[in-house]
Write a structure and sequence with these properties.
Length: about 90
């Protein structure tokens, strides 16, 4: 069991702080849905959205890299076949 608080100002501080924390955590409308201010301050989905954006960006970069690689490969293949045909003649 916790020791009782001896100083009255410390006791008042803890009561006010715990009341403030309780009020902030219970800031909801009577229906149980978060109020407008709480919805605006809520950032629970931010990580998922950021991860989805990163995945899309990486997919676009990968598609661009594959297109560039395929173009380079075709050019190199054509040059190689040309050199082989020159050597064979």
């Amino acid at each position: 069991m916790a020791a009782p608080l001896a100083d009255p100002s410390l006791r008042a501080y803890t009561l006010v702080t715990s009341a403030w924390v309780t009020a902030r955590s219970r800031r909801r409308t009577p229906v149980g849905r978060p109020g407008r201010r709480a919805r605006r301050a809520d950032d629970r989905g931010e990580g998922v959205i950021s991860a989805a954006i990163v995945v899309l960006i990486m997919a676009a970069i990968g598609a661009l890299m594959w297109t560039a690689f395929r173009g380079m490969w075709e050019d190199i293949e054509a040059d190689t076949n040309e050199k082989i045909s020159e050597v064979g003649d």
